[in-house]
Amino acid sequence: MCEQCAACGLRYEREQGYFVGAIYINYAVTVAIAAGGVLVLDWTIGLSLAEQLVIGIALGALVPVVFFRYARSLWLSLDYLLTLADERREQVRLHSR
């Protein structure tokens, strides 16, 4: 991963452990897709326990690998938007004095 954005210069990794939030996002998406997929398939076509386990384990192993980049991007975007909101709030506070 590049250290900063080529267009705006935003540093991607601020400090060690910065992307721990991305791990939480990735985990939540993995659980939602794996559990939701198994439940929907079981409800629609009726799966045996062995089939449920195979599908659940396969999704649980594949989704985090595929979604990893997107989770990091979502975390970075969320931080960027919240930082902008904090900066705007601080500017309003300073101007209202």
The number of helical elements comes to 2
Structural class: mainly alpha
Mean pLDDT across the residues is 87
Q: Compute the gyration radius: what is it?
A: 20 Å
Distance between the termini: 42 Å
How much beta, percentage-wise? Answer: under 5%
Shape: elongated
- N-to-C SSE series? HH
Number of DSSP strand runs: 0
Q: Could you describe the 3D structure shown?
A:
- The protein has 97 residues and is mainly α.
- It has two helices and no strands.
- Helix 1 packs across helix 2.
- The longest helix is centred in the last third of the chain and has 47 residues.
- The radius of gyration is 20 Å and the shape is elongated.
- The mean pLDDT is 87.
Please describe the structure with a list of short key phrases separated by commas or semicolons.
mainly alpha, 2 helices, 97 residues, single chain
Give the gist of this structure:
The protein has 97 residues and is mainly alpha-helical.
Give the helix/strand layout:
Elements: H1 20-45, H2 49-95
Helix pairs in contact: 1-2
